Amino acid sequence: GAVVSQHPSRVICKSGTSVKIECRSLDFQATTMFWYRQFPKQSLMLMATSNEGSKATYEQGVEKDKFLINHASLTLSTLTVTSAHPEDSSFYICSAQIAGGGTDTQYFGPGTRLTVL
Amino acid sequence: EDQVTQSPEALRLQEGESSSLNCSYTVSGLRGLFWYRQDPGKGPEFLFTLYSAGEEKEKERLKATLTKKESFLHITAPKPEDSATYLCAVLLYNFNKFYFGSGTKLNVKP
Questions:
Q1: Does residue A73 contact residue A26 with C-beta atoms inside 8 Å?
Q2: pLDDT in tens, B72-94
Q3: Does B45 lie at the interface with A, CB-CB under 8 angstroms?
């Protein structure tokens, strides 16, 4: 149980283009989803928290207009990297909390490797 | 300032050589502490949640414990497949978000 998927797993794009990453909770509903970024050999850095049906809460230093987050349903959140540049290349990971599950545990997706040329 | 520190940064063990990983924290209002395992190029895999000092959780060769200042992840008779980075994270009462430590990279040699 508590499976989270991400799509795509890898994406390569040209500088200036936008990329959308999907995060789905497959066997549970998620009131809250989180987006993280991870640089090589470093820990996870929280980018934003999204709640279904409301605007995402971004961490300090994360550009809202660059990293657009939409949480349209209880099983889907999307992260769009707009006008991507090489410095946006990274490993993006989402997580989800079970709605009404009585647990604070975050279940993580497998991650998306973004490479911007 | 809230801090989560993991030690050691890296640990090499021989197969069967038991050891412990440490996660120390200085935070206000700890709600829970979480342990995850992360393999290269993958998302973290949930291992344990601990909520109260004195609490212990076990799963196969792993056992997690919690005090008021730190948590330990004990690995008994590890196998090469236990090689991974182990992350701890704390959750505070006032904020529904995790504060992650920097992780311990464990390498178990056959």
A1: no
A2: 999 999 999 999 999 999 998 88
A3: yes
